[in-house]
Structures are given as structure tokens and as C-alpha cells.
Specification:
The chain is α/β, with parallel strands linked by helices and about 400 residues long. The protein has helices at about 5-10, 45-50, 55-70, 80-95, 105-120, 140-145, 150, 170-175, 200-210, 280-320, 345-350, 375-390; strands at about 25-30, 30-35, 40, 95-100, 125-130, 160-165, 180-185, 190, 195, 215-220, 245, 255-260, 325-330, 335-340, 355, 360, 365. The chain has 12 helices and 17 strands. Strand 16 and strand 17 (about 365) form a beta hairpin. Bound molecules: pyridoxal-5'-phosphate (PLP). Pyridoxal-5'-phosphate binds near residues 105, 108, 136, 190 and 222.
Length: about 400
């Protein structure tokens, strides 16, 4: 008897993901189509990846053009797409140098090496991270995170990491000192329930950074590239990171990550001290250029306009269902609702109604849609949420 696709998946692929019961056929713009011909409105965007939507014409053209030239030649050679993307990143962000990785976790790992090197030079050991932060699934990244479900039975993790309470000024004052080499911060916690950093807490970090000379490392893997209303989420605060990690949306659907380094950190590692075979792959850099070009051409204004509309509509829902919805969470197009009950049933009911979203931190509905969603799409989401909440 032949197996269906779900059965084949469980026979062939390690069961580490809880998949939704949808078999994808193709995707276009903000819509995903399954093999039964159903159309889904995508408010997840491949988990904050498909920033320009699916099958964007210019992304496809960049892929075709670059594939016709070459795909991979190794980092032994000079490659124009790599250089152009780095120049564009520098131009937009003001950072000094770029190191390319392939994913968010790899960007975290690289940043950790810079943190340790800074510590070695300045005789500092501790790396600080915060509760609710998510930095990836590799050992270094996991070491920066709390959470039984991510780490159970997998230790030991790396030494000299302290995980402090997110947004606790008191813990900053008590646990950061001259021995602190670096502080890793996700200013808006994507997997940690869309919790946003308190401005006073961030200002305290800046104050301590000046006092103790540690590195501030911003994890912008999910929140970067315009998603929260500014190019980086840290720009909402009074802080100047020394290193920024990015990935997800940068390649518009092709895997790529990067570490951005300021003048203080860009000369910490030299030849042979860090590297990767695929980092800065020409295809990924070519699509990355399309993403940055679009952001540079004014996409940010559209993001902010639609994000404000989405927020207004979500807030209207809160007024309508104050006994069911606790609060609005997040910033820009990295937002959602916190419920008094688990959000997963709402996500599944949305899926029934052909809308894709996601839940995080048990009670939070997370929306990280493509930047090209429009008012009609937001209205449809809100109307379905309204009807679901009415019945709940
Ligand atoms: C804030 C943040 N950092 C790091 C990562 C890890 O990225 P990746 O899954 O590409 O390794 C993620 C992934 O969700 C993330 O949201």
C-alpha cells in the first residue's frame, strides 16, 4: 500500500517539528496554495522570512540572473554580489564591516566568538543574556537561553553565561560589572511572547556599557530589516549596539545571515579565525540586494502605514473582547495579541478559515506577515478573529 505524504514525512524526516496539516503546492504574494487547491492568507511569512511576499518577481529575476552566472565558487574568491550587499548594509546601517553566515543561529555563534575575543582582550569573562530571549538551536545560542523544552538533557552548555530577568533594572545593576564581556539582547522577543524592552531598562544597559566597556549585541534576526517600524528594532531605544545579528528576511526566502560589526569590533578577528563554506553565497546575496533595494526605495513607509492599521484593528478587538484578550503585543509587523487562554486553538481555527498565523509563549498570537499585506487582508484577519472570539 502506498503511503500518503504525511506518512512519508514521518517515515523519512526526524520528528522535531509540529507541522500544520497543509501540503504546500505553491505560493504567491501573501497567499499560499495547498495541493487541494485551497488558498491561505499568510500572516506568518515563513516565520518572518518572506518579507517581500512569495514569488516576488524581482527576487525570481535575481535568482535567474545569478544562477545563469554562477551559484557557488567559495570564499576564496572576490564576488560582486557579496560586496554589493555588504556595501548596501553598511550604507543603510552605518556599521563598519559585515561577516556573512547562513542562518540566525550561525550569526549568534559568530557573535559569541567576537564577545569572547573582546573578553579575552579586556580580561572579562561573563556573557549576559535574558529570560524570554531566543537566539537559535546551536550550543552557543542555547547557552544564552533559558527553557527546559529547548535544553532538557542536552547540557553542559558553555560556561560563564548569566541569564538575567528581561526588563529588570535591578538585575542589571546587581549582576553586570567589570567582568561582563558582552550582553545579548533581543529588543522585541519574537519567541518570548512579543515582549518589548522597557526604554528605561535599555537606558540602564547603555549607562552600564559606558561604565564597564562591554559589547552590546543586538539580535535582530527576527526584528530587523524594517519589520518593527525602523530598520533595526534597537533604533526605538537609546542604545548603540557594537554587533548586530541578522538573518531570516535578508535573503527574501533564500537562506543567509550576517553579523554587522562597528569600528570597535570589526578588527577583533583576523584571517582564518572565522569562516563558513556557504556564508555569502552569491545567490543569497543577489536576493538580499533586492530586499534592501526595496526597503531603501520606501517600503518602510508602507510597512509603517499597514502596521499602524493592523494595530488599530487589533486594539478595536481588545475593546470588544476585554474578557478574552489581555493586550496588544509587539511593534510594527512583529505584533499580535495576548489572550487569557492558550492561543493555539485560535491559530488552528484561523487555519480552518484559511489564514496562517502562529502562537508563541502559550497565550500569544504572533503575526509576522510579508511587508506587502494590505488593508483588505488585515480586515479579513480581523473579521475572522472577531467571529472566532465570538464563538470562543
Ligand atoms: C531572534 C532570533 N534569533 C535567532 C534565531 C535563530 O535563527 P535560525 O532559525 O535561522 O537559526 C531566531 C529564529 O527564530 C530568532 O527569532
Amino acid at each position: 500500500m502506498s503511503l500518503n505524504l504525511v506518512e512519508r514525512e514521518s517515515e523519512a524526516i526526524l520528528q522535531t517539528y509540529g507541522r500544520l496539516p497543509v501540503e504546500i503546492d505553491y505560493a504567491n504574494g501573501c497567499y499560499i496554495y495547498d495541493t487541494d487547491g485551497n488558498e491561505y492568507l499568510d500572516f506568518l511569512g515563513g516565520i518572518a522570512v518572506n518579507v517581500l511576499g512569495h514569488s516576488h518577481q524581482e527576487i525570481i529575476e535575481a535568482i535567474v540572473e545569478q544562477s545563469n552566472k554562477y551559484l557557488h565558487v567559495s570564499n576564496f574568491f572576490f564576488q560582486k554580489p557579496q560586496i554589493e550587499l555588504a556595501e548596501m548594509l553598511k550604507y543603510i546601517t552605518g556599521f563598519d564591516k559585515v561577516f556573512y553566515s547562513n542562518s540566525g543561529a550561525e550569526s549568534t555563534e559568530g557573535a559569541l566568538k567576537f564577545a569572547r575575543k573582546w573578553g579575552a582582550i579586556h580580561n572579562k569573562k561573563d556573557v549576559i543574556a535574558f529570560t524570554g530571549g531566543f537566539h537559535g538551536r546551536t550550543y552557543g545560542a542555547l547557552s544564552l537561553m533559558e527553557g527546559e523544552n529547548y535544553k532538557k538533557d542536552m547540557g553542559p552548555f558553555i560556561d560563564d553565561v548569566k541569564i538575567l530577568e528581561f526588563n529588570s533594572v535591578e538585575q542589571l545593576e546587581n549582576l553586570i560589572d567589570g567582568n561582563t564581556a558582552a550582553v545579548f539582547i533581543e529588543f522585541i522577543q519574537g519567541s518570548g511572547g512579543l515582549t518589548v524592552a522597557d526604554p528605561e531598562w535599555v537606558s540602564k544597559i547603555t549607562e552600564l556599557q559606558e561604565k564597564y566597556n562591554f559589547l552590546v549585541i543586538a539580535d535582530e534576526v527576527q526584528s530587523g530589516l524594517g519589520r518593527t517600524g525602523k530598520f533595526f528594532s534597537y533604533e526605538h531605544f537609546d542604545v548603540k549596539p557594537d554587533i548586530v545579528t541578522i538573518a531570516k528576511g535578508l535573503g527574501g526566502g533564500i537562506p543567509i545571515g550576517a553579523i554587522l560589526l562597528n569600528e570597535k569590533t570589526s578588527n577583533l578577528l583576523g584571517a582564518g579565525q572565522h569562516g563558513t563554506t556557504f556564508g555569502g553565497n552569491a545567490l543569497a546575496c543577489a536576493t538580499g540586494l533586492v530586499v534592501l533595494k526595496k526597503l531603501n526605495e520606501g517600503l518602510q513607509t508602507d510597512i509603517n502605514r499597514i502596521a499602524a492599521y493592523l494595530k488599530k484593528k487589533l486594539q478595536e478587538l481588545i475593546l470588544k473582547y476585554p474578557d478574552k484578550i489581555k493586550t496588544y503585543k509587539g511593534l510594527g509587523l512583529m505584533c499580535g495579541l495576548e489572550f487569557y487562554s492558550p492561543a493555539k486553538p485560535i491559530v488552528l481555527e484561523l487555519l480552518n478559515r484559511k489564514i496562517i498565523a502562529n502562537s508563541t509563549s502559550n497565550t500569544v498570537l504572533r503575526l509576522v506577515p510579508p511587508y506587502i499585506i494590505d488593508k483588505t487582508m488585515v480586515d479579513r484577519l480581523i473579521s475572522e478573529l472577531d467571529s472566532i472570539l465570538k464563538e470562543l
